[in-house]
């Protein structure tokens, strides 16, 4: 990878753009002076030494790679000529063909990190247009590895599916945690104790799943076979529609992702 790689982040003051910029700076993929970020209304005081601008074309002209991290509904108003440069879109729904034609390049990558990029623990699936080179791919892998774990995917439909599954993903354990908090507080537990207990349990579960490398279903079966309090809870949750609720939710996310691509 070239030492003087210049990267531009359109929407760099946003949540995901800021998280990715932090990860690639921390990993030494880009030096602060070679990082450009554009903003619309408000800049931040993060990233000392980096170049900030409201002009995303200026950002594109001074960068080798242009990353788009604006909300999909703001993308149509964005006019950036990439002039054949490598572009990376983090936007949900926006298709490779649209990216190439709107930004005047054949080298486009579409990726779906998630909110855990902020703590370098994102899962990031990505896909490329046909003209992306092996060198471009190596840079993409380095960027996504700096944000967590990545997989190159070959079907754009799978990216749409993963947009709901893991792009939205951190919201789902958070949803479970919120429902557990409500129950614990209704029971009478102090809010701070409930919050500490549930967050520690969730992060501990993540580490356990990672370390054991077992299928989550095997772990659930082990708990069911214990025939204790956990089995009592799981059986009641499933009887109340837990699995169906997850299926319906993920299907809704997939439909939304596909429809966003159709309207972008
Ligand atoms: N957050 C996630 O967990 C997540 C996960 C997967 C994918 N994504 C994708 O990542 C993208 C960014 O999401 P986000 O959560 O980071 O949203 P966000 O926090 O709202 O950030 C978007 C940023 O884009 C800026 N912006 C809008 N139009 C602009 C323009 N013309 N020029 C320069 N900057 C502009 C906004 O500035 P103003 O606020 O000043 O308008 C804002 O700072 C979205 O497309 C989303 O689909 C996000």
Structural key phrases:
10 helices, binds NADP nicotinamide-adenine-dinucleotide phosphate, 2 domains, 8-stranded mixed sheet, 264 residues, ProC C-terminal domain-like fold, Rossmann fold, alpha/beta
Question: What do you see in this structure?
Answer:
- The protein has 264 residues and is α/β, with parallel strands linked by helices.
- The protein has 2 domains: 149 residues, Rossmann fold (3-Layer(aba) Sandwich), CATH 3.40.50.720; 92 residues, ProC C-terminal domain-like (ProC C-terminal domain-like fold), CATH 1.10.3730.10.
- It is 51% helix and 13% strand.
- The protein is built from 10 helices and 8 strands.
- An 8-stranded mixed beta sheet has the order 3-2-1-4-5-6-7-8, sandwiched between helices.
- The two termini are 33 Å apart.
- The protein binds NADP nicotinamide-adenine-dinucleotide phosphate (NAP).
- The site of NADP nicotinamide-adenine-dinucleotide phosphate (NAP) has 27 residues, from helix 1.
Brief description of this entry?
Helix content is 51%, strand content 13%. It contains ten helices and eight strands.
């Amino acid at each position: 990878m070239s030492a003087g790689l210049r990267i531009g982040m359109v929407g760099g003051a946003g949540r995901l753009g800021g998280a990715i910029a932090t990860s690639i700076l921390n990993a030494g993929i880009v030096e602060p002076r070679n990082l450009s970020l554009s903003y619309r209304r408000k800049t931040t005081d993060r990233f000392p030494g980096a170049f900030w601008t409201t002009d995303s074309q200026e950002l594109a002209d001074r960068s080798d790679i242009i990353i788009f991290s604006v909300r999909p509904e703001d993308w149509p108003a964005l006019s950036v000529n990439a002039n054949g440069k490598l572009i990376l879109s983090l936007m949900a729904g926006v298709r490779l063909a649209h990216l190439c034609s709107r930004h005047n390049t054949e080298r486009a990558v579409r990726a779906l990190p998630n909110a855990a990029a902020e703590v370098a623990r994102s899962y990031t699936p990505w896909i490329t247009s046909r003209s992306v080179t092996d060198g471009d791919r190596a840079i993409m892998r380095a960027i996504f590895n700096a944000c967590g774990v990545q997989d190159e995917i070959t079907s754009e439909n799978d990216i749409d599916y993963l947009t709901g599954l893991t792009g939205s993903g951190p919201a789902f354990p958070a949803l479970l945690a919120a429902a557990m908090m409500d129950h614990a507080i209704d029971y009478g537990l102090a809010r701070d104790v409930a919050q500490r207990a549930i967050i520690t349990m969730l992060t501990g579960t993540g580490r356990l799943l990672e370390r054991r490398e077992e299928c989550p279903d095997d772990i659930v079966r082990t708990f069911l076979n214990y025939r204790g309090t956990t089995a009592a809870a799981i059986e009641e949750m499933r009887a109340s529609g837990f699995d169906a609720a997850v299926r319906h939710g993920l299907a809704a996310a997939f439909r939304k992702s596909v429809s966003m691509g159709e309207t972008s």
